[in-house]
Input
Amino acid sequence: MQQAIDITESDIEYAEKILLAEGQNFDDERRAFIKNLEVIDLQAVPGSGKTTALLAKLLILERKLPFADNSGILVLSHTNTAIDEIKHKIKLYCPKLFRYPNFIGTIQSFVDEFLAIPYYTTICKKKPIRIDNELYQEKVAKILEYPYNYKFKLSANYFTKILHIKNSNPNIFYDVRLDIKDSNPILVNRLNGEEFSVKKPIGKTKLENYQDYTNEEKEKLYQWFFSFKQNILEGGILHFDDAYYLANRYLQKYPQIKNIIQQRFSYVFVDEMQDMETHQYDLLEKLFYDDGNSTSIFQRIGDKNQAIFNNIESKEVNWIDRENNLTLTNSHRLSSKIANVVKSFALNNSNIIGSNECDIKPHIILFDDTSKEKVISKFAELVKGFKEESRLIDYRKYPIKAICWNAKWKSETELRITNYFPTYKKDNTKSKQDYDTLKSYLLFYDRNSKTLKSIKNNIINAFLKVLRFENILDDNERYFTKYILFKTLKEKFFDKYQEFNLKLYHWSMLILKGKLDEAYDEIKSYMNDFIKIFDETKNLTISSSFFNQESQTLQVPDNIEELKENNLYTEGDINIEVATVHSVKGQTHCATLYLESFYYNDGGKSYESQRLADAFLGNYITNRGIRIQQSLKMTYVGFSRPTNLLCVAIHKDRFIQCLSEINEDIWEIVDCG
Output
């Protein structure tokens, strides 16, 4: 057990000098959290500086490394963005924290590295090729394209039923997962879902004539799906979900692993805990709380009211409070007028104290069917007016945004983001490992990188994808990885190895200089010669669509600036970015316009102004169906972004119907005409 560590006022002063502006100090709430090194939960309101308080604690603990028992610190969050923020702010001051035995990363990267990959290596005597959703789906698609290669000894009669299911509902094959029941592996229909059961597709059969499969048929088909799932797993291609199955099997078969991990990490901090899904939450509890028997100090940090990234269909947040809780109630972001509104939309009781000095009341902008496209213009007019009156005290410090929950098209009568702003396009430009088209690989690299590495890696991934398409395997009859590809070229085809490296540099430079089409043509031309290095009989047949067709799942803009312009409303010197609520979580704005939108017809209540009328009127909502809970979480996140001005766009008919008694001492009502 790690010896007790004392955090002093001197330690806190050290962290303040690094993290806070000159003259600023941590208040009593934050000091209490920074000093606390027990098993606790921290519930923090929006803009309370919880991550900064966590960073202060990490800065202080880093100075006390190495610990006497050689244990380390584990810091987990839900997204790479959150982890990157931690690294950006303190890595310069914490060199020891980012080395063994410590680990700072996402929950997924932790599970992969410490549980899934070790167990997979133990049972399969090899490492997985990759844990990646896109590659997994690509493998499933390949099986469905050539199903007769995957009969798994099923008789022809039964296999026709598999084909019937494939033709009726192929999603079943993509969604099925492995789980554990009574210590045995089973199939479930999706992660955290019900136990998998094969059901005969209805198709064109009349309901009165429909007859499901017999129990014997269902058992045979179930065994085929089990073999199908095992085949992909053993082939080394894992879905992110598979990592959690492997992790739980590892802990089940080798229970001592839990103790080893607890001894490795004496302090465990999980930020944005509310975003952990059921399987992630349960695994963390099993590892680091261990029914109260863990030797690790496990602290969970977040805000239950902002749980919009875990399963939106779930009725409750997974997070169950510990006995020991700390709170951060003072919001440095929100003004008292905005905080007074936001707390009514909290799913869980939230005492928010707004300390921002701005005195602007929240506004409701009314519109009708003919004026919905004027809403953002009206918002810009309000921003301009308050700016000229010098009442937007954070105008130059933070951006101005218009946000909306629903960006999906369903029908012309259902309001979504494009009804307010027709040129809006979803940002699909985030870098990832796999895309549908060659052009996507060349366009969507990390533009924040200061080296050619991101571009080069994307090009290599494109080559690896073509090798998979053409079923060109390495010496172990497995898909090539980046490491094995370069090792094979270097050892067997050294001239080609040198040539390929030179071309990678040349293509990367072309793309960096904006010569995308030239790079695209050269890579496409070279690809046929490249695959013949490994198999002279091969031509680009199966992968031809990869080069010649636009992606069906990713629309590629001509350039990134065009995408930004599509989502930017400009009026004079006022720039308003149009975005989704999900995309702005964690952000701070000077002014925010929340655009109500259609989400699910729930007894005639489809919009936030209808479902949450009581909250708009300042009352606590007691009747909480699943749609109301979802709407509360979404509005809470959206309403809590601005420091100075909060505006909400509501249709006049819904306002008259639901909000005619609204308190105009709290809300300012304006009409966009």
Notes: The longest strand covers residues 642-651. The radius of gyration is 28 Å. Residues 550-563 have pLDDT under 50 and may be disordered.
